[in-house]
Specification:
434 Repressor (Amino-terminal Domain), mainly alpha
């Protein structure tokens, strides 16, 4: 039974949302068009792109397809940005890879 509580998207998921929002804007794809491609409401899409709501894998693939992107490239870019932000926020100058991301891809 749903509790009404939603988990906030991870840093990587938020970066994925940022990338999709920027690429949609650059391609002049409206939220309505992107929502239709992902088979979700424009309101849900808006929440996803703001990082207020998690997206599922099917939505990610549909949005990437609508924007002519490969999901694996979007994920890799988002992971790199999240790592860079995490490193910058630590500010220690430590060159070791941060480990605070929720998962690591091979």
């Amino acid at each position: 039974m749903p509790t009404g509580k939603r988990t906030k998207p991870s840093a990587v998921a938020q970066e994925i949302s940022n990338i999709l929002a920027h690429r949609a804007h650059a391609a002049r794809v409206t939220q309505a068009e992107l929502a239709k491609a992902a088979d979700i409401s424009q309101s849900q899409l808006s929440k996803i792109l703001r990082g207020d709501r998690q997206m599922d894998v099917d939505h990610l693939y549909a949005m990437c397809g609508a924007l002519g992107l490969k999901a694996r490239n979007v994920i890799a870019e988002a992971e790199a940005v999240a790592r860079a932000r995490l490193s910058a926020s630590h500010g220690s100058g430590d060159e070791r890879e941060p480990t605070a991301l929720p998962f690591d891809l091979p």
